[in-house]
Amino acid sequence: QVQLGESGGGLVQTGGSLRLSCAASGRSFSSYAMGWFRQAPGKEREFVSRINRVGVSTYYADSVKGRFTISRDNAKNTVYLQMNSLKPEDTAVYYCAADPTRRSWPDYKLGSNYDYWGQGTQVTVSS
Q1: Is 15 exposed, middle or buried (0-12, 13-18, 19+ CB in 10 A)?
Q2: What's the rounded mean pLDDT across residues 61-76?
Q3: pLDDT exceeds 80 at position 9
């Protein structure tokens, strides 16, 4: 069992930056690949980014590539999402999720493959 809790969301202007954090407790954090997803009002949840267990391999949705950076600190049981050059279309609730299984594209984009989820943090980008 893993418990996840996101923080760092807020209101920011277009072009601004935010760093989301996801703290994990419970079973060994380093046993899980970690992902970030988001859900905007009226839209389906979508994949944002994923990082493997040791933090070597990272993956991004095309919509955030070059603007967002995922990282993790296994000593602190925390995964981060640095979001730069934010756009109004980035407005959503952002969720972190944990996956105990090594996966390749496109399976790592599927939310159903993640076993544990946080409660989400709201990111609002004003125009």
Answers
A1: exposed
A2: 97
A3: yes
